[in-house]
Design brief:
This protein is α+β, with helices and mostly antiparallel strands and about 140 residues long. It has a single domain, classed as Nuclear Transport Factor 2, Chain: A, CATH 3.10.450. The chain has a 4-stranded antiparallel sheet, with helices on one face.
Length: about 140
C-alpha cells in the first residue's frame, strides 16, 4: 500500500514539474507542442493547420504517424495575421521556426507511404497565436 502511495506522489510531482510542456509563449518548445497538436488533429480527421496543400489536393488519407525531425529558427511570415491591421511594426521580431516533419500514411493501394513536410511556424505576439505555413 505504501509503495502505491509513493508512486502516486512521485507521478503527481513529475506532472507538476513538467507542466503542460508548452513552454513560454513564442518559444521553440511551445511551437513544437502546437504543431504536434495539429498533427494529432490531422491524424484523427479533425480540422487542422498541419495538412499540407499537396495532401489536400491529392485527397490523401490522414497520416498514421509523424516525427518532427528538425527545428531551426526562421524568418517570421508577414502574412501571419488574421487582419491586416494586426500587423504591428515589430512583426520582424516575432519568433518563427522552420520544421521538417516526416509523416507516414497508407496509400490508397494499401502500401506504406512516408512523406516530408516543411513548415514555418510564426508566433504573432499581438494576437497571441501561432500561424502555420506549409513550405512544400
Amino acid at each position: 500500500m505504501k509503495s502505491r502511495k509513493s508512486f502516486s506522489l512521485m507521478f503527481a510531482a513529475i506532472i507538476l514539474i513538467q507542466g503542460c510542456g508548452t513552454g513560454p509563449e513564442g518559444s521553440e518548445q511551445a511551437s513544437r507542442a502546437y504543431l504536434a497538436g495539429e498533427y494529432d488533429k490531422w491524424m484523427s480527421g479533425q480540422d487542422n493547420e498541419a495538412a499540407t496543400f499537396k495532401a489536400r489536393l491529392q485527397s490523401q488519407v490522414n497520416p498514421i504517424s509523424y516525427e518532427i525531425r528538425s527545428v531551426v529558427p526562421d524568418q517570421p511570415d508577414p502574412l501571419a495575421i488574421a487582419k491586416s491591421e494586426n500587423l504591428t511594426k515589430d512583426w520582424k521580431e516575432w519568433p518563427a521556426y522552420r520544421f521538417n516533419v516526416v509523416y507516414g500514411s497508407i496509400s490508397r493501394a494499401g502500401t506504406p507511404l512516408e512523406q516530408v513536410a516543411t513548415y514555418t511556424l510564426t508566433w504573432n505576439a499581438f494576437e497571441k497565436k501561432w500561424y502555420v505555413k506549409d513550405r512544400n
